[in-house]
């Protein structure tokens, strides 16, 4: 485990927990608007899997980064797909990276290469 987050919450607060966005940042944005998410007062916990299984990895990364930059009450945890992307970048040998790279046309690295 890389990091343990010690979080003290006020007695009355709103916590929004969302998982499995899988590159559908526009649906996530609609959800936050529908919930009337307030970055100044609400705690937002994004419970992993923001990447893969969709075609807009880069925009999703930018969107989630902006949310986390805007509020210290926004917390991002990595899911198994996010961890897989990190392992691809930092731990895979080149041949294994190539296999993952070509396995799915919508993977994060292929989208970065096409940008």
Q: What does the model show?
A:
The chain has 115 residues and is of the alpha/beta class. It is built from 5 helices and 3 strands. The chain has a 3-stranded parallel β-sheet, with helices on one face. Helix 1 links the parallel strand 1 (15-18) and strand 2 (43-47). The longest helix is centred in the middle third of the chain and has 14 residues, at 57-70. The chain starts with 14 loop residues before the first strand and ends with a helix. The model has no long low-confidence stretch (mean pLDDT 88).
Question: What is the strand and helix layout of this fold?
Answer:
Elements: E1 15-18, H1 25-34, E2 43-47, H2 57-70, E3 74-77, H3 80-90, H4 94-103, H5 108-114
Parallel strand pairs: 1-2, 2-3
Number of strands: 3
Number of helical stretches of at least 4 residues: 5
Q: Classify the beta-strand content into a percent band.
A: 5-15%
Order of H and E elements: EHEHEHHH
Largest sheet properties: 3 strands, parallel
Uncertain runs:
none
CATH architecture assignment:
4-Layer Sandwich
CATH topology: Purple Acid Phosphatase, chain A, domain 2
The CATH superfamily turns out to be Metallo-dependent phosphatases
Distance separating the two termini: 32 Å
Helicity, as a percent range: 40-55%
- Overall 3D form: elongated
In the sheet with the most strands, the strands line up as: 1-2-3
Number of domains: 1
CATH C-level class is: Alpha Beta
Radius of gyration: 16 Å
């Amino acid at each position: 485990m890389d990091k343990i987050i010690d979080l003290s919450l006020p007695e009355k607060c709103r916590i929004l927990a969302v998982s499995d966005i899988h590159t559908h940042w526009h649906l996530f944005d609609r959800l936050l608007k529908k919930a009337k998410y307030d970055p100044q007062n609400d705690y937002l916990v994004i419970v992993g899997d923001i990447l893969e299984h969709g075609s807009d990895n880069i925009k999703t990364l930018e969107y989630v980064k902006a949310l986390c930059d805007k509020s210290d009450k926004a917390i991002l945890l990595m899911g198994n797909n996010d961890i897989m992307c990190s392992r691809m970048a930092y731990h895979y040998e080149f041949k294994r990276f190539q296999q993952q790279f070509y396995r799915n046309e919508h993977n994060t690295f292929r989208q970065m290469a096409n940008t």
